[in-house]
Design brief:
Length: about 400
């Protein structure tokens, strides 16, 4: 894939990430499942080139070499282990932000007579659960085990990969369809929008949430890049895509690291003016600065054989190793509050994930936060009342000395 999949440009394409071997799975797995994967696929087959291209015409990023999607679907449907807010009394900031913007537009949705809602990629149905509480009729679909969790809370969730034919056969159409952090995972987002359009009622509403790639590019942050993120949307590229596929964009909210886009099914298709002043040079400059700052901050700990720990057993930890070049052999272990991840490891290394209480027993010298929820983690570490330095990578590289 060399032409931009959104605007079709082949003249404004720049390579911004080039990693020869990157893990297909950037989530933690059990030791037994890792052995099974190595036996079935081989160690080398669990790695794949991560080559990210940038389109300067519509500010869009995309993978040059897309992994086999059947293989990726199988891996993630079997191993996806995101913490369940419904089960674990966990406050999902990203989900709550989306709910905030949904409720902010509640009167608009009521005027549009929105009743039947479908969420694609709903996991345990946390958002649907709260929408049902305020009077909407809700349905979800998700291929992971999260669907089973949602069913226990009385939600109608189909444990399937999204397929418009499934709902067409059931003669189901919806007033509003929304998906969050789903579109960037799809090989052909135009086809997905076409499928969504097929099961939307006339003048139906489509609500999308995707990472705001411009935010990451401006700051030189690379946590958003992985083999499961085939696309990176900017406001320009998502508006362009929706307009071309028969949707009229009504509102765009920036959170700022994510975009929430509300659009309406329309009979007309348009090509937008894609002029902008954004320059990719800043990304390359800031990314190198971030990488060097991380290296500089951990250098003294490594030279003095001091203990370094990751806090966050998800994709950010993989990005730290493969994109920010923090070698896994420098890290003692990983901690995470999600009980399901405890004693798990990554396919790319053998670092074990523990309960955060392990920090109290081992007293590490530096904790590198490899998580989106850095603010909550810093508060938790401070409660330990230990002299520990903290290094954040997202949303900026910053060292907090002696936990202050």
């Amino acid at each position: 894939m060399n032409n931009c999949p959104i605007c079709k440009s082949d003249k404004s394409i720049i390579k911004i990430i080039n990693v020869k071997k990157f893990p297909l799975l950037n989530s933690a797995v059990s030791k037994s499942y890792k052995k099974k994967l190595i036996k079935n696929f081989g160690k080398k087959s669990l790695l794949h080139p991560l080559v990210v291209l940038f389109c300067n015409k519509c500010i869009h990023t995309f993978l040059k070499i897309v992994p086999n999607q059947k293989k990726m679907d199988r891996l993630y449907s079997e191993s996806y282990n995101y913490v369940s807010p419904l089960l674990d009394n966990f406050k999902p900031i990203r989900d709550l932000k989306f709910l905030y913007y949904f409720k902010k537009n509640k009167n608009f949705f009521i005027k549009k007579k929105i009743k039947q809602i479908l969420e694609i990629g709903c996991f345990d149905g946390f958002i649907l659960y709260h929408l049902k509480k305020i009077g909407f009729s809700v349905t979800g679909c998700d291929p992971s085990q999260g669907a089973n969790i949602g069913k226990k809370f009385g939600l109608k969730i189909y444990r399937i990969f999204f397929n418009s034919n499934f709902f067409i056969k059931k003669r189901k159409k919806f007033d509003l369809i929304f998906s969050r952090h789903f579109l960037e995972h799809t090989k052909n987002p135009k086809i997905i929008l076409k499928y969504k359009r097929e099961i939307l009622k006339k003048n139906g509403i489509l609500m999308l949430e995707v990472p705001n790639i411009k935010f990451y590019l401006k700051k030189g942050l690379v946590e958003v890049f992985s083999l499961q993120h085939i696309h990176g949307f900017s406001e320009i590229s998502i508006r362009s895509l929706l307009s071309e596929e028969g949707f009229k964009v009504l509102k765009v909210y920036k959170t700022p690291e994510n975009l929430i886009v509300i659009s309406r099914k329309s009979d007309s298709k348009k090509n937008l003016n894609l002029k902008h002043k954004f320059k990719i040079d800043k990304f390359i400059e800031n990314f190198e600065r971030n990488k060097n700052n991380i290296k500089k901050n951990i250098k003294s700990y490594v030279s003095k054989n001091k203990k370094i720990v990751f806090w966050g057993g998800g994709g950010f930890a993989v990005a730290a190793e493969y994109l920010y070049s923090v070698k896994s052999n420098l890290i003692e272990y990983i901690v995470d509050t999600d009980k399901k991840k405890h004693n798990m490891i990554f396919t790319s290394n053998n670092l074990r994930i523990f309960n955060p209480n392990k920090i109290l027993k081992t007293n590490p010298n530096l904790i590198i936060i490899t998580s989106y929820y850095y603010q909550e983690i810093i508060k938790t570490i401070k409660k330990f009342n230990l002299k520990i330095n903290i290094l954040t990578i997202f949303p900026k590289v910053k060292l907090y000395k002696n936990n202050k």
